[in-house]
Inverse folding.
């Protein structure tokens, strides 16, 4: 079986789409960047955008070597239903022109920093906190890159920061100044940094890197070997709060899933307060039911009812948008959860449930309780399921696992959250378990027992 590289494209009748200019540097190689953002840049290139990237590996655990071996190419399987039509395509992404590992070749990164052709930098900040160390490395590499450009007298850049908070770009700017201060870059660098535009963005998609078993099956299907296969749903959004300079330099809107916007608030709100709230409603309960994927959860009638009532009765009335504006989005959310063509693995889709609760669910739960003097039934069931699932989480090599029946299931969450839960157990008395979790201000930022009826409702759920 041939291995994916530039030399086999013609053999497999894969249209060449490689840009001829390197104009962006990407700090990070996680699935959201490679499987969504870079795939959408590749789509824009098919319409003439001509944007080439250098991908910088953060730390030791990265993918510079596999990318180099494949000439920067990798395959994204895009599968699912969109607007009542089936989507099934294999896209060989071709926008990555360089892959760098600074630990192996720091000179190459500094040489790239000295290139006047670089127009923008790109990072992804994980808001759940699960990958804080990786994000810190990316921020430090970006800061070194910018300091080197300043030292060489080059122009500032557009720095696009993907996150779920419009302040993510400003936070990176402050972090860069902090690093530069430690490196004694001086006040002149701070002045130069004003010429850089720090632009927040939202990247939204269910996208994962394939595991070894699935990769082997997909390679057999394609009849070529690829060490970097990604799996993505058809839905994808990369919204950038862009300025005129970026829009002029990078015609990325040639891809309809890339949008330059003046305000990210609505897009972030819809993701957190609707899509993530729905994921929260179904994920922990789905794992406890023994389901492996989101699609299985949506075929599980009690779970489907749970997420439906949670979204329509308990989330939608308290979201800061009209019902008419949000209803089409909720229909799209159902379509995404139910995707029958892409195995959206539940442990991966359920990453960061504590974050999803705080940002997306808690505002609706609190508003409902204030109005009805009792907590919303379905969101409270989902919170109780989270408590049961996390209370059995225990550290393993490189992560945490919990026990569901006889099986061990990985749990992807912020380390301090899982450490707190690891001191508990699902077989504790329900009132003790509810008290320990709900009263923990370090977990939630507040004492959740102060919400009308929540503690009693959780105790009742845990007792069933």
């Amino acid at each position: 079986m041939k291995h994916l590289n530039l030399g086999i494209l013609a053999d497999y009748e894969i249209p060449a789409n490689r840009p001829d200019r390197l104009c962006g540097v990407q700090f990070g190689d996680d699935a959201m960047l490679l499987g969504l953002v870079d795939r959408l840049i590749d789509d824009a290139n098919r319409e003439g955008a001509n944007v080439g990237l250098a991908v910088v590996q953060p730390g030791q655990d990265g993918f510079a070597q596999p990318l180099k071996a494949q000439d920067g190419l990798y395959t994204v399987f895009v599968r699912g239903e969109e607007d009542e039509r089936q989507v099934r395509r294999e896209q060989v992404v071709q926008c990555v022109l360089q892959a760098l590992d600074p630990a192996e070749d720091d000179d190459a990164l500094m040489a790239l920093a000295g290139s006047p052709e670089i127009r923008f930098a790109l990072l992804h900040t994980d808001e759940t906190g699960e990958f804080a160390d990786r994000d810190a490395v990316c921020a430090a590499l970006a800061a070194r890159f910018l300091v080197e450009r300043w030292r060489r007298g080059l122009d500032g850049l557009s720095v696009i920061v993907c996150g779920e908070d419009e302040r993510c770009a400003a936070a990176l700017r402050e972090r860069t100044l902090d690093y530069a201060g430690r490196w004694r870059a001086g006040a002149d660098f701070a002045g130069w940094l004003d010429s850089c535009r720090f632009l927040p963005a939202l990247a939204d998609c269910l996208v994962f890197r394939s595991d070894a078993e699935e990769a082997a099956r997909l390679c057999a299907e394609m009849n070529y070997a690829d060490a970097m296969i990604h799996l993505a749903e058809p839905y994808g959004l990369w919204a950038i709060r862009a300025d005129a300079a970026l829009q002029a330099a990078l015609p990325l809107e040639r891809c309809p899933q890339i949008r330059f916007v003046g305000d990210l608030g609505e897009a972030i709100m819809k993701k957190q307060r609707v899509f993530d709230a729905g994921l929260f409603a179904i994920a922990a309960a789905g794992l406890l039911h023994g389901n492996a994927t989101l699609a299985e959860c949506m075929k599980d009638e009690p779970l489907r009812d749970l997420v439906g009532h949670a979204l329509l009765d308990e989330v939608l009335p308290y979201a800061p948008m009209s019902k008419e504006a949000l209803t089409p989005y909720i229909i799209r959310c159902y379509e995404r959860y139910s995707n029958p063509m892409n195995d959206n693995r539940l442990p991966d889709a359920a990453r960061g449930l504590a974050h999803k609760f705080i940002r997306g669910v808690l505002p609706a739960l609190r508003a409902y309780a204030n109005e009805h003097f009792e907590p919303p039934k379905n969101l409270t069931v989902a919170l109780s399921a989270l408590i049961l699932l996390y209370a059995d989480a225990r550290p393993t090599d490189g992560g945490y696992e919990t026990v569901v029946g006889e099986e061990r299931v990985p749990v992807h969450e912020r380390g301090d959250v899982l450490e707190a839960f690891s001191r508990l157990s699902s077989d504790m008395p329900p009132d003790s378990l509810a008290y320990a979790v709900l009263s923990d201000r370090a977990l939630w930022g507040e004492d959740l027992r102060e919400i009308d009826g929540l503690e009693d409702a959780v105790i009742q759920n845990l007792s069933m």
User: Anything to note?
Assistant: Residues 265-288 form the longest helix (24 residues). The chain has a mean pLDDT of 94.
